Amino acid sequence: MIIRNCAGGVVFRDSKVLILKNEKNEWVLPKGKIKEDKLSTETAIYRVKYETGVDARIVSSAGETAYEFYSITREQPVCNKITWYIMESEDEKYEINKDEGFLDGGFYPIEEATDMITYSQDKSLVSLSYKRYLEFKDYEKKKILV
């Protein structure tokens, strides 16, 4: 089995989250393989920008997920281990990278996005990350007031 270390972003803009529709018509989060000389944080920021055109900053770690699939091209099983980051965008401007096979995407209200997202672990990741994001925003507001 091939093990691939990946990183991705759960990107929020106010009460919306950024999701993508891939070539299999699955609604997913932006992510990608960590190259040998890169950090997971660099990869997450890069993949969000590369896949969606969104400039986002990391506000916290979100945890890890993993999934396995059979690669027809490699003729063997692959396990993707993904380190996720909670990220924030200053605006809702995006440009889906259709050259990478993405069909659609954008910022969607949390509840709507959770219904759209294909995989249950990604749905949970968005829900938990949004709670942490709100805590971060609350902390940020209190810090400004002090």
Name the features.
146 residues; alpha+beta; seven-stranded mixed beta sheet; 3 helices
Walk me through this protein's architecture.
By secondary structure, the protein is α+β, with helices and mostly antiparallel strands. It has three helices and seven strands. The chain has helices spanning 40-52, 110-116, 120-145, and strands spanning 2-13, 16-21, 27-28, 31-33, 56-71, 76-89, 104-109. Strands 1, 2, 3, 4, 5, 6 and 7 form a seven-stranded mixed sheet that branches. The chain starts with a strand and ends with a helix. The mean pLDDT is 95.
Give the beta-strand count.
7
What Rg do the Cα atoms give? Answer: 15 Å
Portion in strands: 35-45%
N- to C-terminal distance? 52 Å
Q: What is the overall shape?
A: globular
SSE order: EEEEHEEEHH
Please give a quick description of this structure.
The chain is built from three helices and seven strands, in the order E-E-E-E-H-E-E-E-H-H. It has helices at residues 40-52, 110-116, 120-145; strands at 2-13, 16-21, 27-28, 31-33, 56-71, 76-89, 104-109. Strands 1, 2, 3, 4, 5, 6 and 7 form a seven-stranded mixed β-sheet that branches.
Draw up the topology in text:
Blueprint: E1 2-13, E2 16-21, E3 27-28, E4 31-33, H1 40-52, E5 56-71, E6 76-89, E7 104-109, H2 110-116, H3 120-145
Parallel strand pairs: 1-6
Antiparallel strand pairs: 1-2, 1-4, 2-3, 2-7, 5-6
